[in-house]
Write a structure and sequence with these properties.
Blueprint (H helix, E strand, L loop, with lengths): L1 H21 L8 E7 L1 H4 L6 H4 L1 H9 L3 E7 L17 H8 L4 E5 L7 H4 L5 H13 L6 E6 L12 H19 L2 E4 H5 L14 H17 L2
Parallel strand pairs: 1-2, 1-3, 3-4, 4-5
Helix pairs in contact: 4-10, 7-8
């Protein structure tokens, strides 16, 4: 009887080890991915937002072994002196407490509003501060900076000239200075005005393309 029990236990241990080697989610903690951002990350304007927002789709693309969470806040700015600083939101604290291993930051669109961009001289420093904040977490996450999506029509003060001509170059420079990977959502979503019903927010198809672009960047750096 005891010999049979020992044999069963041995087989079970070998099977568990094999499963763990095949699936990192078995016997190991999932890699947590924090998607930090504004309304585009949140999924405003996305049909059936709960299942079609980009962090959810990204999680499906990454598959087992990964866990993604949406920390997007509509109207949020990267600028600490913006009209709705991400720094002061519950999502910022939640993303911090999440102890992520990967952080995808997609902010800058709302910063282009005139009342926010009057503080443009602070944008680079605030971006470096956010990078430093997440980089300093005990989980030591890898950080990715996203270039904002294109703006197909000026609305709510959000405008293309500032996003393309000023916000994006600053993000690129900070990424270069810090040795961070850049995810070019601007390029990926350019030429797809049909995916932006209100000219600012992508629909479900746009969110899927955004997720695929982020996934390609994360997969390339595995």
């Amino acid at each position: 009887m005891f010999q049979n029990l020992s044999h069963i236990l041995a087989v079970a241990l070998v099977t568990a080890a094999w499963l763990a080697s095949r699936n990192p989610a078995v016997g190991a903690e999932a890699i947590r991915v924090a998607c930090v951002g504004d309304s585009i990350t949140f999924g405003a304007g996305v049909e059936k937002r709960e299942v079609n927002n980009y962090p959810v789709v990204l999680g499906q693309l990454l598959g087992s072994g990964y866990e993604t969470k949406n920390f997007g806040v509509s109207g949020a700015t990267l600028l600490k002196n913006g009209d709705h600083p991400y720094w002061k939101t519950g999502a910022f604290k939640a993303a911090t407490d999440y102890a992520p291993k990967l952080v995808v930051i997609k902010l800058g669109t709302n910063d282009s509003k005139p009342q926010n961009w009057k503080h443009k001289g602070e944008f680079a420093a605030d971006l470096r501060a956010m990078v430093a904040h997440f980089a300093g977490l005990p989980s030591q996450p890898k950080i990715y900076l996203c270039l904002p999506a294109p703006v197909y029509q000026e609305r709510w003060g959000i405008n293309e000239p500032v996003v393309k001509g000023e916000v994006i170059p600053i993000i690129q420079q900070v990424a270069k200075d810090k040795g961070l990977a850049v995810i070019d959502l601007y390029g990926a979503l350019s030429g797809h005005a049909e995916m932006f019903p209100d000219k600012i927010h992508p629909n479900a198809a746009g969110a899927a393309l955004l997720a695929k672009t982020v996934h390609a960047a994360l997969a390339a750096k595995k």
